[in-house]
Amino acid sequence: VSDPDLSRLSLNQATTQNSGMVATIEGCARAEIGWIGVWRDKLLELGPVETARRLRSAGIRASSLCRGGFFPAATEAERQSRIDDNRRAVDEAAEIGAPVLVLVSGPPFDRDIDLARQQVEDGIRALLPYAEERGVRLAIEPLHPMFAGDRSVVVTLGQANALASRLGSASVGVAVDVYHVWWDPDVYAEIARAAGSIVGFHVSDWLAPPPHHLLGRGVMGDGLIELRRLREAVDAAGYSGPIEVEIFNQRVWDTPPEEVLALVKERYLAWC
Amino acid sequence: VSDPDLSRLSLNQATTQNSGMVATIEGCARAEIGWIGVWRDKLLELGPVETARRLRSAGIRASSLCRGGFFPAATEAERQSRIDDNRRAVDEAAEIGAPVLVLVSGPPFDRDIDLARQQVEDGIRALLPYAEERGVRLAIEPLHPMFAGDRSVVVTLGQANALASRLGSASVGVAVDVYHVWWDPDVYAEIARAAGSIVGFHVSDWLAPPPHHLLGRGVMGDGLIELRRLREAVDAAGYSGPIEVEIFNQRVWDTPPEEVLALVKERYLAWC
Q1: What does the radius of gyration of chain B's CA atoms come to, in whole angstroms?
Q2: Would you call A185 and B155 a contact, using CB atoms and an 8 Å cutoff?
Q3: Is the CB of B47 inside 8 Å of chain A's CB atoms?
Q4: pLDDT at B1
Q5: What residues have CB less than 8 Å from B90, skipping those under 6 apart?
Q6: CB–CB of B185 and A117 under 8 A?
Q7: Which positions 7-26 of A are in contact with B (Cβ < 8 Å)?
Q8: What's the pLDDT at B92?
Q9: Chain B partners within 8 Å of A147 (Cβ)
């Protein structure tokens, strides 16, 4: 058992949803948090180029850009427009210096979940050459199966590993988010199998039962997830990058961001 | 593709939560539904013996008794009291002629999910001789991973199959509920693997997103689940028993039960 390194702590902007880009950069600088997990909508405030400049001058790096994906669609034209949007996301990731674009695969557009899964694979394959050119790695993030109908047909780390393996590029890996994978009887075997291709690690906690479908995540230590065990497994699989704290929770959003950042640091050290 | 046999339709009492036992038996008799999936709390109205008599005289059979389980607990005394309660559930199943007791394994009592899973296995093993004596089969029902923290640490059919296989008794099998397993990339492989040990099949539908953690199930045809494909897979694995319609949904509960039964029959024929 080893304490986590504070230099790996990253604030994913989903944790402080009500703060804009400038406020988040200033807040993290004051709290001495060296990484931010950036969301695309937050880039609208300053644009990617100015955001990158502000990050640099604050000594903060983007750990990832959230998010691309959402590949399945009923028509070829719509699927192509999703891929085009993912290319813009790759551009934005490159512009802000984020090494990773997180992919949430998207839900099925009707009752054919196998077809949706095939469209996810086809979509990532179509996006991949562009990501390779721009030096951005794609992170396939399996989401909790409770999101299978509205967010992601990729729902297990085993499925994400198999998909990454079939795509067979150093520019595709997996993101491990404890909230999405903690329930899985195979999670430790699949983390080990992902050795060398883990490109993101996200933490929060599981409240039982979740108080809300989307906004029900807990702060680390408030729930049931074996956070340290999972973090050490991810470390043992060779991942030494930033650890993003990503807490979708209305009560956290309603708390002053300085308090949230202080709590996040404290709980990260105590539980991760 | 084959239409489902109406003689296999069973009304699980969770679908008509506001009706008591007498009303449910009378309603099913009028609607010519030959099976009822009985809940333990509904037995309090008449007691098991009188319930059995009323079922017989209406020409209706109990497809299963819901539910036993909830094995993990912090102390040996509490775990023993859970097993004792499960023995009473076995008695009740035998008394009403239900061939199957459905087991919902229970949540972890702290952050150690592996320990909770071990306690589930130990609990079923302790219960098994009593079930064998009374001629009641135990159905391990994997629940959707969204219930891992509050209802069941058994969350995949693969896990239930492995558990049933380790227990190695003709008196232990698995229950396949489409709501709990539809998202699983391995579901068809695991249904095939369960051949010969499927002792229950439950249907409803997945609304995206679910409108409520517990009471958000859809009526067949209103959601994303490939119901007929799953039913045919379960049939192909040798299951020819009753098909329970189990819809936890507040709006369904607020609908007059006669209307619910008519809708259930119509949707069962159209979608299952």
Answers
A1: 17
A2: yes
A3: no
A4: 55
A5: B68, B101, B127, B130, B131, B134, B136
A6: yes
A7: none
A8: 98
A9: 209
Secondary structure (3-state) at B39 = strand
User: Could you tell me the pTM of the whole model?
Assistant: 0.97
pLDDT digits (tens, 9 = 90+) for A52-99: 999 999 999 999 999 999 999 999 999 999 999 999 999 999 999 999
CA dihedral A79, A81, A87, A92 (to 10 degrees): -130
Average of per-residue pLDDT across B99-118: 97
pLDDT in tens, B6-50: 999 999 999 999 999 999 999 999 999 999 999 999 999 999 999
- State how far Cα A157 lies from the chain centre: 13
pLDDT for the residue numbered A1:
56
Task: Report how many helices (DSSP H) and strands (DSSP E) chain A contains, helices first.
Answer: 10, 10
DSSP H or E segment with residue A244: strand A243-245
Contact between A111 and B208 using a beta-carbon 8 Å cutoff: no
The partner residue sitting opposite B208, judged by closest CB among A145, A150, A210, is: A150
Coarse DSSP helix, strand, coil percentages of chain B, rounded to the nearest 5 percent: 50, 20, 35
Q: How far is B151 from chain A (nearest CA, A)?
A: 9
